[in-house]
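Morning!

This is the sequence you dropped in the shared folder:
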Amino acid sequence: MTKLSFYYTLFKGTTAYCYIRWGAKAKVKDLETRYPQFFAKINAQKPAETSLTLATITSSSNSEGFDLASLFKAAQAISSEIVLSELLAKLIKIAIENAGAETGYLLLKHSNTFTIEAVGQVEGDNITLSLIPHQPLAEVLPMSVINYVERTQKSAVLNNATTEAIFATDPYIVAHQKKSILCTPIINQGRFMGVVYLENNLAEKVFTPARIEVLKLLSSQAAISLENAQLYQTLEQKVEERTAQLAQANREILLLNERLKVENLRMSAELDVTRRLQQMILPKQQELESIEGLEIAGFMGVHLTFANVSQKS
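The structure's back. Tokens below.
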């Protein structure tokens, strides 16, 4: 393999893509200078919505305040959480912070139905969790956008929702006149799990390509962490169920022991009464010995065994 073909293989695979994605500007610029024809081929092969260039990650990251340290920190925070409720809260806060949203919703799909699992919003300098609304989803969110993301399994970016031909007639958008909207799917190993829905109603075109790519990266990590957290929750539930079963069995054993104790006391009392009655009814030893001509083969407690009784005439 020649040197040029070797570099082309790297570019077509993952190496150059990762250099661009993670902001290794010096390395990317060097490769772009030395092999511009290969970068042209790569960008031509990529879909427009996922094309990554220095403008979308490295240059934009400087102008918009992104840095690898914060991205890694966010990804680590997501991957380190195993408790589902805590993970959901972290996910929506991190998504809002890194995408520049005002409000965010995390929805998961359960039995063909979307459920809002977490809601966050910016309040001053903080991102706080909000109560999950109980209204129908169509009154809370633009379901046309969410259904589109589920159907295509691609992100939907609306620079001004009120002017987007496909979604402008959505009842929610009509009622609230939303501006910037970003909805990204959560997918793990090809399985659609839910969406991260974000809004910013202060300005149009808030969700830039760099912010979108960052959210895609975080969504990928979120999908893995959600899968692990759900498995952990299922395991915890099974452990709780088994523990409850064992506790119930233990209570039943204790009750049985108490009943046995009572039964033993009752039987002991009955035997004692029986023994006394026998002693009252049956002849005493001295009385038996005084009967002339009676031979006693055995005498045990209150029970008599007559082996041979002979009557002398």
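Headline: The chain has three domains: 3-54, 67-232, 284-313.

More detail when I'm at my desk.
O.
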